[in-house]
């Protein structure tokens, strides 16, 4: 006996179906990334999404693997496609042809993205521009996502004695408070000047928040000056924060709260490479903690 398939909806276009799916994502940054991920699929084929079949998706995955895109970005793109097709089938727009789509394994690459504290130290110390020096220190010491850093406003910062704290509006609409060591907190005063409370902490020359692409260029330039062969991204600094904190014996639930992970399993999955580095504690005290 054949199983019945949902009737294909004729009332939506691909664009409308994608936007309906995106509205279910609470975070605007996530919607932006997922829209770009779906764009990779729609621009590589003359077929509509309703006409796409499993072979088309397998060929797309192969093309993606040879595109030079980082494995973690490949996996996110394919995961977004699977999520879209699940919803598309539920609403009767098209069949779920992505159920058998396999995601690339990216776990081994994670340990390769953990840089040492000496690497981070050089990135911060060799940065010639004051604003960018603070930016690098905050990315690492607070373990921020690049979107969280770009969204920081001066009203989100508050002193705590000689140190300070920042209120982060994170992924999925969740908020958290992250403490900053005195050495990092003290660098904000000359950066602020007469900025209004609602002004961005890290602003462009036009006064608008820095774009994520600009932050990526700042981090990569800093890694180049530090003599790091790999193209370091801001997320590497986030991974490094977690790895180094766990190496120093920080409770995993505290690291989870600092990073804003929904699950402690995500935090536990972060790997480390150089647990025996003797410079680790002194870097946190001297370079970042003051």
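-> sequence recovered:
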């Amino acid at each position: 006996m054949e199983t019945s398939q949902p009737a294909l909806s004729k009332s939506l276009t691909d664009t409308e179906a994608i936007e309906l799916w995106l509205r279910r994502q609470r975070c605007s940054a996530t919607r932006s990334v997922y829209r770009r991920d779906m764009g990779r699929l729609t621009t590589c084929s003359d077929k509509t999404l309703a006409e796409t079949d499993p072979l088309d998706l397998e060929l797309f995955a192969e093309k993606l693997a040879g595109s030079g895109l980082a494995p973690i970005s490949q996996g996110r793109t394919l995961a977004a496609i699977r999520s879209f097709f699940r919803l598309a089938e539920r609403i009767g727009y098209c069949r779920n042809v992505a159920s058998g789509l396999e995601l690339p394994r990216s776990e081994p690459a994670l340990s390769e993205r953990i840089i040492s504290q000496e690497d981070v130290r050089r990135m911060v110390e060799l940065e010639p521009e004051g604003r960018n020096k603070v930016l690098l220190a905050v990315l690492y010491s607070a373990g921020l996502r690049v979107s969280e850093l770009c969204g920081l406003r001066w009203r989100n910062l508050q002193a705590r004695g000689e140190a300070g704290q920042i209120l982060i509006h994170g992924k999925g609409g969740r908020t958290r408070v992250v403490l900053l060591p005195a050495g990092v907190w003290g660098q904000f005063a000359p950066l602020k000047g007469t900025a209004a409370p609602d002004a961005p902490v890290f602003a462009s020359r036009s006064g608008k928040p820095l774009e994520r692409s600009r932050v990526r260029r700042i981090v990569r330039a800093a890694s180049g000056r530090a003599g790091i062969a790999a193209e370091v991204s801001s997320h590497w600094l986030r991974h490094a924060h977690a790895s180094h904190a766990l190496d120093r014996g920080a409770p995993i639930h505290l690291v989870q709260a600092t990073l804003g992970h929904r699950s402690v399993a995500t935090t536990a999955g972060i790997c480390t490479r150089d647990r025996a580095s003797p410079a680790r504690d002194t870097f946190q005290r001297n370079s970042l903690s003051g």
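The chain has 15 helices and three strands.
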